[in-house]
Amino acid sequence: MNQRLWYTSPATEWKNALPIGTGRIAGMVLGGIEEERIALNHEWLCVGQNKERQNEDRSAYLPKVRKLLEQEDYEQATILANEAWGGNGGISGRPSKEDPYQPAGDFRFALDQGEAGNYRRDLDLERARVKISYEADGRYITRVSVGHLIEDCIITRIYAREEPVSGTFWLERAEDERCDISYELGDNTILMHGVFHQGMKFCVTADLKIRGGKIIPIEGNRLRVEDALEILIFINIGTDAKNELPIMECRRRPLPSKSWEQLYRENIAEHAKQYGKLHLDIFEEEPNLPTNERIKKYREGSGDATLPILYFNYGRYLLCASSANGELPANLQGKWNEDLHPAWDCDYHNDINLQMNYWPAENGHMEDYTEALLRYLEKMIPYGRDAAKKLFGCRGVWLPLSTDIWGCATPETYGWSVWAGVTAWLAQHVWWHYEYGQDMEFLEERGYPFLKEAAVFYEDFLVKDSDGIYQVMPSQSPENRYVGGGELPVTIGVSSAIDIELIMDLLSHCIRAAGILNIDADKIAVWTEILENLPPLQIGSKGQLLEWNKEFEEVEPDHRHVSHLFGVFPGEQIDPDRTPELYAASKVSLERRLSAGGGYTGWSRAWAACLYARFGEGDTALEHIRALIGDFATESLLDLHPPRIFQIDGNLGGTAAILEMLLQSYFEELHFLPALPKCWKNGRVSGIRARGGFTVDMEWQDGRLLKARIVSVKNRNCVIRTNHEKYSIQDSWGNPVKFTMEGSKLIFPMWNDRMYFITVE
Question: CA 72 to CA 456: how far, in whole Å?
């Protein structure tokens, strides 16, 4: 159920096309009738002119900026901070030195056929394939495309039930004054070479295999197929990003000799190893309508309770298709981009966007696909060390607000760049990978070393004031400003709420990790002392959580970011039991921001949905999912940022929100169905992961938990937050399991080789 996007006409623009990918390469299938276009990308393909960029020493500015902040001269502090650490790009008038992510070009073909009828275009999420089918000239023609995860190439099959098919096939790339294109043509191969001036080289190969008929080279970049009973096209892309000839990357993946049937079956099986780990069903009828019509009706207020489930499944598919064999994490558009000059360079934005891409990875049972993110962070460490020293005179690692495939830690968004919170925020994903999986080897060898290095920066960067309180100077609340901060787009101030929350998040995880590993008692003492002397989070005159260290007047009350609510979600510093006043104030802040007109981008609407799920308000969270789909999605459900710019973060943030509605596990305590919308009255989910090493299946009826199954990766106690229902627990062999109650918390012991079945009576 809700595993298919389908349409009765071709895509009229790239944004409405259907994505496929292997993580390394990607394609967007438009499904044209007279002419098909598959737009191509390679995760490493960028202009490639700025790989070696470095920072200058700017550390002498730090005491000057801090003095201005102490004097509360925020306007001059903001100007000087940007002069020091704003870098290029942004509003500097200087070009950014980030290398823009680039399209590889298009694979196109035109078949010899008459008028088409009974057209259908669909993306099967479980089979990871796009299929175009129609009738023409008395033939039933199918065109199936996959991002093949084993062969690591894009494969298209054209077939007309043993009827002959003819057509012309070619590669091309949009005219680009920065890039020279040339072609080679073989008996059954089209090879397109690209060279960016003083930049990256790349190639695209299209190899044709046919059964019956013949292939005829024509012109400089075209092959003609005549009277084939089956046509297979194998598309690959190579770059010189790793200092090798682009064609060598392609040659490492030779053409398979397998039949289409075998290729198709094995790709489904490989995809299922990750995508198939989790299943969600809502027991409501799925409308038998094309997806674009479902979206239209949903926007108009239809009661389609299951369209969000399709959106959820699509989000998991997108992360799979942009991650599987990838070496790089998903960027602002995953791995799909058609623009020569993409918005924000289609880069990595590290003040919400990259993080949101991976919000659903751990609990959504796609933890293996966080590896590209983890490797990318590890690759950035030497760049971050250099930046911390040169920019601020600190040890540890400083990571930039935005960067590109190279992972260089240079500020490149003047007006926005001055922020010290990125390292701590990305470190949260390192901790999550341990927290959900409980992999001690990962924690010891990779996780804790990264956390510790991130913490060292804040040990040096924080400054104690006259009251003995550690202040963050300079600080910002991305990407917001307040009255009195001048005309630059972001105000630089002191100890924003998010910076305090991020440091709390990082250092508390460092302390836990060191305790688990039984090491670094001296560091635990240092981190504990810092935590005990951070500025307290504050509540303002309207009952709201303050975003900055004082109750400044907001320039944009409707700002798209709600950074000060990090501690609610995705953090854990603001909690209904541990900090109830701050929790209530956070809800007031969110309501005020939204009532002023906030949530006007796809990703910010997704964050609102996540926050309301954390607040336990499932119906409100679902209303934001409705807006995410109705107001910020293309016909192919790709998320949009105004003005109609595809950004994948909203898709993945929406997926995370639905996971948050179904199961929360803060502090390794399981909370079943904490924000279940009323319209999801009956349903089930299997394979959802929880902090502490748990995997959970649940079924519910009439909005209440009916039964659950829990497995754990280690021997431990399981804590369940209840609503005082009556529970019974059995193990794998049907033996009753004793439990205790501490208030509303149910506690019982688990062994890692057993399943435990929970029944609510």
Answer: 28
